[in-house]
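Q: May I have one protein plus its fold?
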Amino acid sequence: MSGWILFALAIIGAALVANARWPSRGPWMLIPSWFGVFITTDLVFHHIVLQVIVIVLCAWFGALETTQGNVAVVIMGFSSLALLRIWSPALRARTVTEAVAADLDLDPAEPLPRSLLLTPFPGTRKGVEAIRNIEFHRAGGQSLKLDVYQPDLARDNRPALIYVHGGGFLFGDKKNQGLPLCNQMATLGWVCFNVNYRLSPDATWPEHLDDIRAAISWIRAHASDYGVDPNFVALTGNSAGGQIASMAALTTDADTAVQAVVTSYAIYDLTNRHGAHNPEYLTKMIGPHVLKADPETEMEKFRAASPRDHLDAVTIPWLVIHGSDDPLVPVIEARDFFTALEAASTAMCGYVEFPGASHGFDVYYCHRAAAAVDLTARFLVSASNSANAASRQSE
């Protein structure tokens, strides 16, 4: 029996590796296939260690005395080698981010401790205080809450960062996204606000955006409670959260203005102008569940919700981060958005594309996440330092 158990686990592992190498792009298997990539590709060494533990345990019960058990070991060996090859582009993540940092002449910042990569699922780091579930707004009968990550040592006039989680507008939560970045920025002296917002299908766009605007206003109104400098509030988000953060930055007023933006594998185009998405992305997801509009007769609503269509004049620093192999938000969206952003911007803007990276690579600690967090930290620190220098010159 132990031999057959080991063989079954080897087949499951081989299937995950095959999916990581050839992920499905079809409408029905897109999300399950991506999730398989998400839990496999950037956790390669954890998978290999787990396979070794499984082999040892099954061998203890005699699995290696059977033909199927020995075949399983061979399959696991080849799977591990294949997974290492799939992961190998991650080795270039640091080189890519360092090139961007050099090109933008970014200020230095303390890097993420590499020891964190051994335990990928983040908690609250030493030296960081987490205050959870603070209500900042009520809308649509819901109590909207945020978590605060701040340094243990209190002081005033600290820059603030707001994190907007992803989840396709339909799901997601502050408690399990953005934690590597929020913890790192808190260790650098920032105050980070990880924010929830109303989700579709109950919420209809732009209610998601309204909630983030409410969060920005609330944070400024309560700046003194957290030692925050209300004159420097940065905004970041991933995936759908990146779309919301982008729209908040591009369609702002005095009360909700932000001073820097970082968007990771964000949705920049809800019109599918490049044809990179399956048509059902608009007709069966974004249209009926998020915008409550028909793309065939109400395309103006899709354009109005697309950050790509709001790049008139950008005056704040902006960093765009994406993965070259993202199956959920094709990288052509990020490349096109950044080209237009660079043409419209009078401020510092940068683009980094991680080779071989999928969607959600920075949710847990891994090689790419560390590179992304370090680059984001340097970008935000540089933007804050520049704003402070400009403020001193104007005094």
